[in-house]
Design a protein that fits this description.
The complex is a heterodimer of chains A (147) and B (112). Chain A has 147 residues and is an alpha+beta fold. In chain A, 31% of the residues lie in helices and 27% in strands. A five-stranded antiparallel beta sheet of chain A has the order 1-2-3-5-4, with helices on one face. In chain A, strand 4 and strand 5 form a beta hairpin. Chain A starts with 7 loop residues before the first strand and ends in a 5-residue tail after the last strand. Chain B is α/β, with parallel strands linked by helices. Chain B has one domain: STAS domain (Transcription Regulator spoIIAA, 2-Layer Sandwich), CATH 3.30.750.24. In chain B, the strands form two sheets. Chain B has a five-stranded mixed beta sheet. In chain B, strands 3-5 form a two-stranded parallel sheet. The radius of gyration of chain B is 13 Å and the shape is globular. The chains are: A alpha+beta (147), B alpha/beta (112). At the A-B interface, helix 1, helix 2 and helix 3 of A face helix 2 and helix 3 of B.
């Protein structure tokens, strides 16, 4: 299906090293600034992409460098969609997550798993699809502008 | 990652000089704080005034450091930027950590 005329897309690859992930964040931030999103929304969207790329490197590629993580960002004036793809191991991570803890109980404070909670809290629609050896996490966020 | 440390009486103030605490540095960051804790520094102020971005791994490292200190000391935060604060609110960690606007307020609180 052809893209709507108002939609624009950028796709780039990063090597599967955690040191490279901040570059994906810089790209997201640049686009969010271009879209005049608020600082908090920009931070949240950068955070979601960073978490998704981190997960691909950690879980799909098991921290092994030399593999590509593809980041595709498509936006219109109504929504922005991030596709994060890898060709590593299929992940069984994505789905609704809760972050339920007693803030006064030190021993039960979460140290892991918060990335998935963040993605599911911030993003309107999260889907994960494995097809033909390629895994793609799609995160779709509707945009809200102040008038 | 570079962290500046300053001792004010028995309170240790640590200030990351990097703008990001993310998955690429989280293990090293946590290791440095644990080294200070093991050396006897259990009243720690984490000054985040240089930090623009923390991801869940960085946040996990800070939580882990607090758990390492346990109930025999405290790890409090100051200088946090509004964007980073939004992560603490989103994950409800703003209810776990004492967060002060300035370093001097944090020092006063930990020196009591």
């Amino acid at each position: 299906m052809p893209e709507p005329a108002s939609q624009k897309t950028i796709t780039f690859l990063i090597d599967s090293r955690l040191e490279n992930v901040s570059l994906a964040g810089v790209a997201v931030r640049g686009i969010c600034n271009y879209l005049s999103l608020s600082e908090i929304d920009t931070y949240y969207l950068e955070l979601c992409v960073v978490e998704a790329v981190n997960n691909a490197i950690k879980h799909a590629y098991d921290y092994e460098d030399g593999h590509a993580v593809e980041v595709s960002i498509a936006y219109s004036n109504r929504e922005v969609t991030f596709n994060i793809s890898d060709t590593g191991r299929k992940m069984d991570l994505y789905g609704p997550r809760c972050l339920d803890f007693d803030p006064d109980d030190l021993s039960m404070l979460p140290e892991h798993g918060m990335g998935l909670y963040i993605i599911n809290s911030v993003i309107d629609e999260v889907t994960y699809l494995s097809d033909g050896g390629k895994n793609t996490l799609t995160m779709r966020k509707r945009l809200h502008y102040k008038n | 990652m570079q962290i500046e440390d300053t001792k004010v009486d028995d309170v240790l103030v640590i200030q990351p000089l990097d703008k990001r605490i993310d998955a690429s540095v989280a293990t090293e960051f946590k290791g440095k704080i644990v080294d200070w804790i093991n050396a006897g520094d259990t009243r720690i102020i984490l000054d985040l005034s240089n930090v623009d971005f923390i991801d869940s791994s960085g946040l996990g490292a800070i939580v882990s450091s607090l758990k390492t200190i346990g109930h025999d000391g405290d790890l409090v935060i100051c200088g946090i930027k509004e964007t980073v604060m939004s992560l603490f609110r989103l994950t409800r960690m703003n209810r776990v950590f004492q967060i002060f606007e300035t370093r001097s307020e944090a020092i006063r609180a930990l020196s009591k």
